[in-house]
Amino acid sequence: MKDIAIVAFTQSRHTAEDQGLNETELLLPLINEIKEQTGVSRFDFTCSGSCDYLLGSPFSFVSALDAVGAWPPISESHVEMDGAWALYEAWVKMQYSDEVQTALVYGFGKPSQTNVRQVLGLQLDPYYLAPLGVDQVSMAALQAQSYLARSGAKEGDLTAIAARSRADGRNNPFALHLDDPADDAPYDVAPLKVHDVAPQADGAAVVVLATGDKVREISERTGLKPAWIRGIDHRADSHSPGSRDLSVSPSARIAGEKAGAAGVEVAELHTQFSHEELILREALDLGENVRINPSGGPLSANPVMAAGLIRIGEAAALIHRGEARRTLGHATSGPCLQQNLVAVLEA
Amino acid sequence: MPTNHVLEFPGGYTRSVGPVIGRFLSELRDGRLVGVKTREGRVLFPPVEYDPANGHEVTGEFVEVGPSGTVESFAWVPEPLPTHPLDRPFAWALIRPDGADTAILHALDVGEYERGAKVPKRLKAGLRVRPEYRDERKGDISDIKAFRPEVSMTNAPTRVEYSLQPGKALDRFFEGVAEGRLLGHRCDVCGKVIVPMAGLCAKDGVPTTEEVEVADTGTVTTFAVNNLPDPRAPEVPFVSAYILLDGADITMLALVAGIPADQVRMGMRVKAAWKPREEWGPTLANIRWFEPSGEPDVPFETIEEYL
């Protein structure tokens, strides 16, 4: 397996309200910033992750390529998923193509333009689930209830996770700065209260992967330590919520084992709902000494389709700055933690 | 400035369903639930083409399941979205019909009508439910309007009328009450004053005739806090108390109001709150309830023998 490192990461200052920018305008300053930072103006491979349904027009991701500068034609790909899966595709491409020494990976989303919980419901099984009109938060609440019933955890445990995430988020300039959960906060879909649901935000993130000599070259320029990808794996559970035990996440467990989750100091988890942290902690076997989401995580800013890539970026940034030696980035896709990706990074 | 943009497939998005899901939807249109058997003999419901456990093709043997089923998990929607199947609070539930090994996700209607309602107590894993079908079915998953709890209770109207004869002694008592007086009898043998009088002393078994008027003030000897509503009480919780009227030797059961339920005390002094005079009749309902009189509490020893 080829050694590949995350050598640069940047993200937007995520906002809860529309800032009057379109997707390309959101992305352009970040792409320019990362080109400046790395000194690379054309990457050997480019891969993006986004969701056309957020804008409601097919191939809307293509216009975002304008921000990259795609002429003369570049080698490019796209996943209709969170940017974390674009990173995975780029990593695979680099494993098998000696011509690819640098890769630009980005994810972006503007949930402010539509009703995301409803849009994500359209991605469900079109025979048994989508026609019911079941939305993303309702699906998550079913999983939360299953977990609480099985584990004996209480709703207060979920609130504590939201409170810690919001407190950490207030120290993160890129996150939304949210107040502590209110004592009388109402339910969204019970047992999830409003603060247990990650606050949607408009935002984008960019990561640069490098291998071979390019790692040293770029690191010397940025002054940041490379974050080596020691393991990366993704797995999926059955799409039918009634045919699996929602209180556990076998796909996260296997992805964690394959990626080598044991022994990490920090884990950035793509928790779009408070209870997911508890399920993932268990699945990834993260002990009490593992710090979860020091960035505040998605519970303090959830730029849809970028939030998973940001977890890997934040985990890498801790290594870039020399603040940790072994970290984990996690991303999820689909209802009720159906699909999980785990990346383990090392200094 | 944002512009409005609608993404819609006019008339909906048409999909072929294949033999497995097609069989399920056809049976559903006829009002039956069927699952499909896996090679290992498990029954997948709703049926899918491949066993999610191992990817093997299913057998093609369909079996009827339900209609009763068990709720395995649920999520309560206090404020339904416009896209939800019900426009009032309901639960999303994973329901495993009898005879099936997997569950279906569907709406569960527990008969809650008030938006924002709290999670109903009866909504629990293990709740037994059945589908409620639409009258006009067309062969899709919403042919089931929602699942509903199985019938576990019934409620029959109960009302009987009587014409009661209070008896001579009580008639006299009510005559007094109609004039705002509380009357009793003193027992010739033990000397105790019995209010309301019964024309006899239950202790000594002798007739009583000596009429005595007692005060409409008294002392709470003991009390209970009631949490079930009662048409006579001002609110819930309310307090019912035994009150020893000044001059009487037998306590009387009455409501206590004008004070929060958790502040009522044994030994507390109270006075009757009468209805307006024009509403009086030969009934104890003339006294709405007793209220604190503001006098200091009496020591426990003075009420001890009346408990």
Notable traits:
heterodimer; A: 347 residues; alpha/beta; ten-stranded mixed sheet; two-stranded parallel ribbon; 33% helix; B: 307 residues; mainly beta; five-stranded antiparallel sheet; 3 helices; 9% helix
What's a concise summary of this model?
The complex is a heterodimer of chains A (347) and B (307). By secondary structure, chain A is of the alpha/beta class.
Structural summary, described in words:
- The complex is a heterodimer of chains A (347) and B (307).
- In chain A, 33% of the residues lie in helices and 20% in strands.
- By secondary structure, chain A is α/β, with parallel strands linked by helices.
- A 10-stranded mixed β-sheet of chain A has the order 3-2-4-6-1-7-12-11-8-9, sandwiched between helices.
- In chain A, a hairpin with a 5-residue loop joins strand 11 (326-333) and strand 12 (339-346).
- In chain A, helix 3 (83-96) crosses helix 10.
- Chain A is globular.
- The mean pLDDT of chain A is 95.
- Chain B has 307 residues and is mostly beta strands.
- Chain B contains 3 helices and 18 strands.
- In chain B, the strands form 5 sheets. A 5-stranded antiparallel β-sheet of chain B has the order 6-5-4-7-8, with no helix packed on it.
- In chain B, a hairpin with a 6-residue loop joins strand 15 (238-245) and strand 16.
- The longest helix of chain B is centred in the first third of the chain and has 12 residues, at 18-29.
- The radius of gyration of chain B is 34 Å and the shape is elongated.
- The model of chain B has no long low-confidence stretch (mean pLDDT 92).
- Chain A binds chain B through residues 18, 53, 56-57, 113, 117-118, 121, 126-129, 131-135, 138-139, 141-142, 144-146, 149, 186-187, 189-192, 238, 240-244, 246, and chain B through 2, 5-7, 13, 15, 17, 21, 25, 44-46, 48, 52, 72-78, 81, 83-85, 92-96, 102-107, 116, 119, 125, 140-142.
